[in-house]
Amino acid sequence: MAKLEHVKQPDISLYINGEFVPSEAGATFENYNPFTNETVNLVQEGRKSDIEKAVAAARDAFDNGPWRTMKLSERLAYIYKIADLIDEEVENIAYLESLDTGLPIKQTRNMVARASENFRFYARMVDSRLIGEAYQ
């Protein structure tokens, strides 16, 4: 199995209002690989105040951000870009998911590939104007 240091490590901070920030309490917890019981990384322990900040930021972004007024073609470009970025990082994401869940790497690779395909599938549905109709 590859060594953890060979994989890009995720930021352990909370992501609120477009920034990586520590939890207000400064508390973290260890994330363990259930297969080996080794520490994968430290994760910020978000508390109620962190959640309230995140919800307020999300609400503001929804109400006042560019997404609401963005053209459909621009929205779809972002959704396809997410899928492309996932595809570029399949090995890293799959490895970290394997460490996090204890699942075999082959299975997590398939899960990651499916995640990017889900973004493309729903983008195609929207682009085809199939929302609200039965889709087969």
Automatic annotation (TrEMBL):
The keyword Oxidoreductase applies. GO terms for molecular function: oxidoreductase activity, acting on the aldehyde or oxo group of donors, NAD or NADP as acceptor. Residues 20-128 form the Aldehyde dehydrogenase domain. InterPro entries: Ald_DH/histidinol_DH, Ald_DH_N, Aldehyde_DH_dom. Keywords: NAD, Oxidoreductase. It comes from the Bacteria. Transmembrane segments: none annotated. SUPFAM superfamilies: ALDH-like. Belongs to the aldehyde dehydrogenase family. This is Aldehyde dehydrogenase family protein. It comes from Candidatus Pseudogracilibacillus intestinigallinarum.
